[in-house]
């Protein structure tokens, strides 16, 4: 997944931070590079004392940041908006990637299109981006959630239930898509590639950390771009590290290459710039906020003021 955005000449300036940062991440190809940063000593190189905290269940990481149990997390825009709607103070400082195919709606044999899901049992982790993707796909097929039998389930459990034949379709993200596709005759009937920009993934900090320790935040952003450059220069070694952390084979991990677009610094800056197209975060945030409100997943309209901070990406040297 890392062939799409090699970045050279990243800043290697160090950040001075005496405080330890606890950073959450989980099984998504756009976030697993943090393991490379840890293994190659890039956090320390940038003056950081970082504890990487792995979450087997992605939603646990969202809750950990929302409750202040960790300092920052790797999470989607939708999930950040849900937390902000609930009163959490969070700041997006980096776009890791966009999902460009690694989120999929996968159906059993005999279901050939999203329109065929009418009346069928579909499992998805409620409130996540795959739920969002499902609703986008249903809307395009002129259906709504009421036209299917929605079965809320954690993503790993949903993929397992699908393989076991307990449900007709599943919404999942990589690497759980690999598990789901083990079911004979199964196939993707919709993917995030069909909805450009709808699923951006970020490094999100507690707002108080950004305010009180900006040097550490800068160090994290610097580290990310150095990590992407290191991966490009040491691809095989990086693939070994990342596939091991993701619990999949190297070949499986490499198969995710086209489904996750790692963002360059310029793509980051373009995304942070206000606009009205799918590439602009403020535009996607408005659409996602409407989704959360319309589905009842958020009781309050998320406050977007101060949510996006491009200061740290701007400070990275090209």
UniProtKB/TrEMBL annotation:
One of its GO terms (molecular function) is ATPase-coupled transmembrane transporter activity. It is found in: Periplasm. The keyword Signal applies. Keywords: Signal. PANTHER family: ALIPHATIC SULFONATES-BINDING PROTEIN-RELATED (PTHR30024), TAURINE-BINDING PERIPLASMIC PROTEIN (PTHR30024:SF47). CDD domains: PBP2_SsuA_like_6. Belongs to the bacterial solute-binding protein SsuA/TauA family. It holds the Pfam family NMT1_2. This is Sulfonate ABC transporter substrate-binding protein. GO terms for cellular component: membrane; periplasmic space. The lineage of its organism: Bacteria, Bacillati, Actinomycetota, Actinomycetes, Pseudonocardiales.
């Amino acid at each position: 997944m890392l062939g799409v955005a090699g970045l050279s000449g990243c800043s290697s300036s160090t950040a001075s931070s005496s405080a330890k940062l606890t950073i959450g991440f989980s099984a998504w190809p756009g976030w697993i590079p943090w393991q490379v940063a840890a293994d190659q000593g890039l956090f320390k190189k940038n003056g950081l004392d970082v504890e990487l905290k792995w979450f087997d269940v992605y939603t646990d990481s969202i809750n950990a940041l929302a409750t202040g149990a960790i300092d920052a997390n790797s999470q989607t825009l939708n999930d950040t908006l849900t937390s902000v709607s609930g009163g959490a103070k969070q700041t997006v400082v980096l776009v890791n990637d966009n999902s460009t195919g690694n989120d999929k709606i996968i159906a059993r044999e005999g279901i050939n299109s999203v329109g065929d899901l009418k009346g069928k049992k579909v499992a998805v982790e409620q409130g996540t981006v795959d739920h969002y993707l499902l609703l986008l796909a249903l809307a395009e097929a002129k259906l709504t959630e009421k036209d299917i039998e929605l079965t809320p389930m954690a993503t790993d459990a949903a993929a397992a239930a699908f393989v076991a034949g307990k449900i007709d379709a599943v919404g999942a993200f990589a690497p759980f898509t690999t598990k789901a596709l083990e079911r004979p005759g199964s196939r993707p009937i919709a993917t995030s590639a069909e909805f450009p920009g709808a699923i951006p993934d970020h490094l999100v900090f507690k707002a108080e950390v950004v305010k009180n320790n900006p040097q550490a935040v800068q160090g994290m952003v610097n580290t990310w771009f150095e990590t992407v450059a290191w991966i490009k220069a040491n691809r095989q070694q990086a693939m070994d590290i990342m596939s091991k952390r993701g619990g999949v084979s190297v070949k499986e991990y490499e198969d995710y290459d086209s489904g996750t677009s790692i963002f360059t610094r310029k793509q980051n800056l373009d995304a942070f710039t206000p606009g009205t197209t799918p590439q602009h975060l403020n535009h996607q945030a408005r659409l996602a906020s409407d989704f959360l409100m319309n589905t009842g997943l958020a009781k309050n309209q998320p406050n977007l003021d101060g949510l996006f901070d491009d200061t740290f990406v701007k400070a990275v040297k090209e």
